[in-house]
Amino acid sequence: MTDSNPQVGAPPVCPRHPDRVAYVRCQRCGRPACPECQVPSAVGIHCVDCARRSSSGRRGVRTALGGRPVADALVAKLLVGACVIVYVGQLVYPAITGWFDFVPALAATQPWRFLSTALLHGSLAHLGLNMWALWVLGNTLEPLLGRWRFICLTALSALGGSTAIYWLASPSSTSWISGTVGASGAIFGLFAAVFVIQRRFGRDTSTIVGLLVINVLISVLGTNISWQGHLGGFLTGLLLAAIYAWAPRERRTAVGVWGTVGVAVLLVALAAARILLV
């Protein structure tokens, strides 16, 4: 038989590297740790195993609204790129507009139009203004909300804009067969989110309110502008941003997920109800 216990007076060795003498001990478990297995911490040296257990049990860093911090507004950049590519496609093959714009008369049989319309634009100026707004608002909101909240906010605001157009268009008027294009509904939802978040944290909202007033005036007084889509996007963004901003700290993820699902179900239900009423 052999004795499994170390000899009395033998130098301590690293459990992970038994061939290495280690006089430094982990501050948590007390085991020896060789230089390769030492992890510096605020309260001394930890061994690799204790450092891993500590890291796995630690909650991830979150933003003020509970999102995962991101280095840049990647989603916003991808959306801008997608809209530019689609606009080039519209110029090369104009039929694309007729396939994907939002036409209330076709909404029941071609539901993809509720969202696809947000990628289309009617002119270079229309595209430029919307993409500038998406770039600025995206760089503000995406790092704060995190990727998935920003995606949901943008997509559901676009859906809310189309739903409002659907409800406010009359089957007996030309608006029922007219096509609408643009990301303005989504962008108005982002404007609403900035306003809500600034209010939530007690910041000055005069700048965003001024921009909203200017855009509302343009929507009402301008020609060939869908104020209905702007209104629907704004109200949707307002509701969803309020859910994200005022969710209890300890339940932000759950409230955010279920709140997003609830808003999506509400919009789908409104669209379905309109179909039944036509």
From TrEMBL:
Pfam family, one: Rhomboid
Stretches assigned to coiled coil: none
KW Membrane (keyword) present: yes
Segments passing through the bilayer: 78-100, 112-138, 150-169, 175-196, 208-225, 231-247, 254-277
Keyword terms, alphabetized: Hydrolase, Membrane, Transmembrane, Transmembrane helix
InterPro entries tied to this protein: Peptidase_S54_rhomboid_dom, Rhomboid-like_sf, Rhomboid_protease_S54
Membrane topology: Multi-pass membrane protein
Gene Ontology CC, one term: membrane
Domain Peptidase S54 rhomboid span(s) in chain numbering: 109-245
Keyword check for Membrane: yes
Record GO terms (molecular function): serine-type endopeptidase activity
Cellular compartment(s): Membrane
Family from the record: Belongs to the peptidase S54 family.
Protein name: Peptidase S54 rhomboid domain-containing protein
Lineage: Bacteria, Bacillati, Actinomycetota, Actinomycetes, Actinomycetales
